[in-house]
Amino acid sequence: MERLENPLASMRTIPAVYKILNLPSVIELVSKFGHSVVSAAVRETQDELRKNLLDSSTTEKPSFTEKAFVQKVHGRVLELVQKSIKPVLNLTGTILHTNMGRSFLPKEAIEAITEVALNSSNIELDLTRGSRGHRDAHVEKDICDLIGCEAVSVVNNNAAAVMLVLNSLARRKEVLISRGELIEIGGSFRLPDIMKSAGCSLREVGTTNRTYLKDFQSEVSPKTGMIFKAYTSNYTISGFTKEVNEKKLVQLSSEVNVPFVVDLGSGSLIELKKNGVQIEATPSKKILAGVDLITFSGDKLIGGPQCGIIAGRKDLIKRINANPMKRAMRCDKVSIAALSAVLKLYRNPGKAIHCIPTLRLIFRPKDEIRSLAKSTLPILKSYFNDHIEIKVTDCDSQVGSGSLPGKILPSAGIRMRVKRNASRKLTLTQLASIFRSLPMPIIGRVHDDALIFDCRLLEDENILIKQLEFLPEILRKNVS
Ligand SMILES: *Cc1c(COP(=O)(O)O)cnc(C)c1O
Fold first, then answer.
1. What digits encode the pLDDT tens for the residues 130-141?
2. Whose CA is nearest to atom 13 of ligand 1?
3. Ordered domains of the chain (ranges, CATH)
């Protein structure tokens, strides 16, 4: 590239937008993608070039050349017209990965989503009376029947559920919570901050590892608005610990007439046991134990869409629904339709375990995963030379998102290692990045100096095999 000493002089070599738009190669882009996106791309490319010219840290000052400029414009146009969010193949071994969208929905939910998305619906219409209905009514009865509660309120996610419960029932009051439960869950869910934003003041009870009933009793006052328990779903405190029996907190809260609320985070609607894995029906257990309200996510163990479910006493749910904040947190028709479809599947538990991908993947037997890894191994190997060691390996999956914390699910997958004596150096980081740059990015886990692809979430090997066909081109670009 030509080197110009004076950046202002080279700045003047960048033609005006209208001139660039009249170049034959750019006219071609306009006819294909339309005027507005191409001119936006031209402006952005100009800005970038100007910025580079003024950037004193780069010694090589690029000047305007038509070919390079138009190529950049083309690339930018493609970026602007392509959707940013797209499917990826999650082979990390974490089933409910928040960064990768947690649960995949069953086909019944997809059908329900499509129907309501393409049409008007009775989302807030009582068809019998012809009057205004309530959107939560579409899911309330199913949840009540499944977990034995009186009423339900549904919001956008569980963080919203917690916030709404606190704000509706304990605003300007004190919320008692055991010091051991002051949790932070990945992605900025910190209970102390949520409490503050909800307008409650936090009253920490006991010590981090040991909290007794008498600690709660001594903190109760007329200012108390709620007793709150949060499931420490992403860590455990072990050793010299003491947790207050929930039954005793139920009793205490009813004695002092404040609600006892439990944030479960993740909760299953039914009890499930298969292939050495057990999922408890925690929500129904809590309701049965007399907890006034519970909150849990729709896209964790339930395997549904993102939402937060508040379940429990009817009078409390009524107060929650009357809070204007509920209006700001309500679910859209798409989530309600998906949740409703998933709940209907739970009406037949024997079927649910096969139809709901999250459950199917949690209970997927290791043998099946291993044989899938075995059959894809030779195909993957054929794309690499012997500088990369590729083997079938045993590995451990986990449910993730604070569901079944500490539970390891024996799994299998493929392990790729760069051999020490490899002459053409392809680092592990590069290898991982190559798989991420496939049209459907493949996300593995780097562990022990190897790239591991846990095959638990790979149910159709053809999805992987099809992506591998793009490898040679990407490898050529990266290794040369
Ligand atoms: C996951 C979780 C949350 C947050 O739920 P979102 O659905 O991500 O908003 C809150 N509390 C607990 C205990 C959790 O596990």
1. 999 999 999 999
2. 265
3. 11-81 (no CATH), 89-97+361-478 (3.90.1150.110), 107-354 (3.40.640.10)
